Each structure stands twice: as structure tokens, then as C-alpha cells.
């Protein structure tokens, strides 16, 4: 067993209606002034109204930053941090999907570390602790509420990368399944498959640990049990609870073990074609699983039994292959596009995409099967419809 270290957030609050505790959670931080970074659609739809009302009831003053694009630029984090400093905020609240939560985490560190966000893109480049961050996810998928990464896209040069390091761990995650009830079916599907990707890549990562394994397998089980129901009927609170917990555990596993080639290959899709990260992961996942199966069939077999009900007498190879097939079927059931053609990705860009994916160093290194640019080209090509 290889040695490992364990870092995580300080506090997790889970349950229906817990977003109404936001005001009290802010007071526990010893402040009454916060910056709220919120997804604009979440803000306009009133999804976060109970949380914002709780701030008012607790006597907490807040400034709102909601100028967030789907795949945020680094300058958006700079703008949010500037607003927070000018307002005198002593903490940051993030409400929304992964983009809003990532921006909240970045704003928290940029409020105490001088310079623009671009200076900190990389690993452990943030040296000073940031303002404490409280995250309230409104989707069950990204796991950003428990990870140390804030991802950005520079559309001008097709770059996608993140600020990564221990200083970005949020202080508190408030997990209220009620915040996800109004999430549209397709967003529920792609964020749920994003969470499954986190869990499966963490479980098969070369950096996996006993702690990440426990979280990843339970996440796979919860997602397998609940994603179809959450997509089919958004007001199914039991399914919403299961998905929120599954996404959270997948995020914990991701934070400890990292991810693999699915994420590396998804980055160019976001940077070049503005495809949402969760959607890119969802489409690519089964194709990368097919490529990786030979590297750790025993782990694939264990994932298969966590994901679905299967006969107990299968051989390891049969169970491993069943894992891939179950992911294909789950994707199809919840409406994930079957190929990159459906995302309007031009085939002629595949070599460029593969080269770009190879530069996403940590996921490539974590992947259970060693990959080359030629391998990635083949997987990308496999993910197009057969002519």
C-alpha cells in the first residue's frame, strides 16, 4: 500500500432545507459581511431565495456577483474578488453549479493573494489562505463544493486549466437536495454522469487510496440507484437526496485520487467548442472506459457490482465488460448524446484535440492505462458515429 495524505473541507451540512441555515453558518465564521457568487439563472429563478433570506434574517450584509459565463474566464474571478474587497467581505458564499462554486473558491483566495487569477493557474501556487468559502451546490454532479480546484477557460487561445491547491478547499459545504429539484432533466443527466465520471476515474486512478476507494464505490452505487429516477421525475426527493450525496462522495474521491483521461480529453472540448464540462465527460466516459478496461479488470468488476444488479457468478472479465455496458445503457436511458457528432465536434480537429489533452498532465499521469497522443486520437475517433 502506497503512502497518502488526506486534506478536505472542514464542515459538511446535509439535508432537505439546510440552505436556510446559511445565515447561521456565516455567523459561525465570525463575520456579517460576505460576497455571494451566484449563477445568474439560479439567481433569477429564485432557487436561492431561502438561503439569501437567511442571510438577511441573521443580519448578514452581502454583495452579489452573478456575471458568470458557462465556462468562466479568469477575468471573472478577478472581477468577483475586486467586488469582494471593495465591499469588505470577510467570507465568500458560492451558490450554483460548478462554475459558480469554482469562481467563489477562486475569489476567496484572490481577495488575499495579490495579482490576477492567471498568475495562480497551476498546482500549489497560492501561498496565503483565502477568505473562508461556503458552497451551496444547485446541481448534483461537479463535486466542486469539496475539491481544491477552480477551472477556467481562455477562449482567446483555447486554454483550459485551473487554480489547484490546498488553499482552495472550501470551509463548509451545505448540501440541500431541495436546491436541485428545479434542475432541468438534461442538466440533471449530464451533471449526474459527471459525478459518475469522478467516481470511476478516482477508483481506477493510479493515485487511489483506501479512503478514496470507499467514497468512490459508494458514490457509484448511489448514482446507479438514483440517476434515472432523478432525471425521470425531478421532484423525486429520495432520488435527489441520493444524487446529492453521491456527487458529494464522488467529489471527495476526486479530491484525494484525481481523475484520468476522460477529463483530459474533455478539456479541449470545452476550450475549443464551448461544450459544458459535464456534457463532454458524459459523452466520453464509456469510450475511455473501454480503452482502460485491460489495465485493471478487477476494479472494473467491482464498479460493475456497485453500479448495477448483476449475477454473482460472473468471471472478473465478464463483470468488467458488464461495467462498460452498464455505463452505455445508463447514458442512453438518461439522454446523453451517443457520440461527438451530436455535439458538432469537427473530426478534422481530432489530432489537435489529442495533443491538447496530452498537456493536461495530472489526469494523464493518473490514468490506469498509459496513453499516448495516438491512443487519444483513436478514442476520440471511436466516440464519433461509425460511417
Give your account of this protein's structure.
- The chain has helices at 22-28, 40-45, 49-57, 74-87, 98-110, 185-203, 210-232, 237-257, 261-273, 277-292, 297-307, 316-333, 350-358, 361-366, 373-382, and strands at residues 11-14, 33-38, 61-65, 91-96, 122-123, 133-137, 149-154, 159-164, 172-175.
- It has 387 residues and is an alpha/beta fold.
- It has 2 domains: 11-180, 3-Layer(aba) Sandwich (Rossmann fold); 185-382, Dehydroquinate synthase-like - alpha domain (Dehydroquinate synthase-like, alpha domain, Up-down Bundle).
- β7 and β8 form a beta hairpin.
- α6 (185-203) packs parallel to α10.
- The mean pLDDT is 95.
Q: Strands, helices and their partners?
A:
Layout: E1 11-14, H1 22-28, E2 33-38, H2 40-45, H3 49-57, E3 61-65, H4 74-87, E4 91-96, H5 98-110, E5 122-123, E6 133-137, E7 149-154, E8 159-164, E9 172-175, H6 185-203, H7 210-232, H8 237-257, H9 261-273, H10 277-292, H11 297-307, H12 316-333, H13 350-358, H14 361-366, H15 373-382
Parallel strand pairs: 1-9, 2-3, 2-4, 4-6, 5-8, 6-9
Antiparallel strand pairs: 7-8
Helix pairs in contact: 1-3, 4-5, 6-7, 6-8, 6-10, 7-8, 7-11, 9-10, 9-13, 10-12, 11-12, 13-15
Describe the structure in brief:
The chain is 50% helix and 11% strand. It is of the alpha/beta class.
